[in-house]
Specification:
By secondary structure, the protein is α+β, with helices and mostly antiparallel strands. It is about 15% helix and about 25% strand. The chain has helices at about 20-25, 50-55, and strands at about 5-10, 30-35, 35-40, 60-65. It has a two-stranded antiparallel ribbon. A hairpin with a 2-residue loop joins strand 2 and strand 3 (about 35-40). It starts with a strand and ends with a strand.
Length: about 70
């Protein structure tokens, strides 16, 4: 992933379903759901965007750091 881009999680939208974690292709996974909360390791994220596409409530997005 580009160094100036990170994956973020919107706690208010998240349903805690775990689809993002299951869809993450990295090993180990860049997203882990624990107790209904997402933990994102942007060092592991390759920026593929699969989790964003698969999230049914659109709780994930990329942002560009200024």
């Amino acid at each position: 992933m580009a160094e100036d881009t990170i994956l973020i999680w919107n706690e208010d939208l998240c349903a805690g379903c775990g689809i993002c974690e299951r869809s993450c292709p990295t090993d180990p996974r860049a997203i882990v759901i624990t107790g209904g909360r997402a933990a994102i390791d942007n060092d592991l994220c390759d920026g593929c965007g699969i989790c964003i596409k698969e999230c049914p409530v659109k709780a994930l997005s990329f942002i560009v750091l200024a």
